[in-house]
Design goal:
The chain has about 190 residues and is of the alpha+beta class. It has two domains: about 35 residues; about 160 residues, Butyryl-CoA Dehydrogenase, subunit A, domain 3. Helices cover about 60% and strands about 15% of the residues. It is built from seven helices and seven strands, in the order ββββαββααααβαα. Strands 6-5-7 form a three-stranded antiparallel β-sheet. Strands 1-2 form a two-stranded antiparallel ribbon. Strands 3-4 form a two-stranded antiparallel sheet. Strand 3 and strand 4 form a beta hairpin. It is elongated and about 70 Å long. Bound molecules: zinc ion. Zinc ion binds next to loops.
């Protein structure tokens, strides 16, 4: 079955037989890497980038407030604690879930999908597809933190308090972006094998 597959050379567009491993184009003698390997490696690279960015996103201040010359910096967790202490429990819980738990959950989902594809773990394809769509669906929700900072900085710009997004906000936005890239690079065709 596998020997009957055809693969296109990305350099000269010639159609070659997919022998399964180490394919060299019959016309231009260039190495052809199956699309699977390429998108798989791309998904890993984006995921690793996102996981590294998770650290500065949580360690650096996401919000810098300036009030009458007093500068106050707060990280995601610091902001959540402040919100909790001021009695804004629903907002504190939403931000805790969206910016602390959701990214970790997405990392775990993508790692699971990558491992189960690599080692062909025999869970049903239905489950993997479901997991993939859950990962995609919750993706935009983890941006809620950046939305909050943006809205706050616009709203409170007119009063005495000045709100500036900190380095953590940039790292956070980039982390969400790279997680989304990783999920997109992860071709759903990989799941079918
Ligand atoms: Zn070629």
């Amino acid at each position: 079955m596998k020997n009957n597959k055809l693969i296109r050379c990305p350099i000269c567009e010639a159609v070659n037989q997919d022998s399964g491993k180490a394919i060299i184009c019959r016309r231009c003698e260039e190495h052809i890497y199956p699309e699977k390997t390429v998108s798989y490696n791309r998904a890993i690279a984006f995921l690793v980038t996102a996981m590294i960015l998770y650290l500065p996103a949580n360690l650096y201040p996401i919000l810098i407030t300036k009030q009458l010359g007093v500068v106050h910096e707060s990280t995601i967790l610091g902001g959540i604690m402040l919100l909790w202490q001021s009695g804004s429990y629903p907002v504190a819980i939403i931000i805790l879930v969206a910016s602390v738990f959701v990214p970790i959950l997405k990392f775990i989902f993508i790692i699971y999908l990558l491992i189960s594809t690599k080692y062909n773990i025999k869970s049903s394809n239905m489950d993997k597809h479901k997991l993939f769509y859950i990962t995609e669906a919750i993706g935009s929700w983890s941006m809620i933190d950046v939305f909050v900072v943006t809205i706050l900085s616009v709203l409170i710009h007119f009063t005495a308090v000045k709100i500036i997004p900190g380095a953590g906000a940039t790292a956070f936005a980039l982390m969400v972006f790279f997680t989304m890239l990783s999920a997109h690079a992860f071709d759903t065709r990989l799941l079918k094998k």
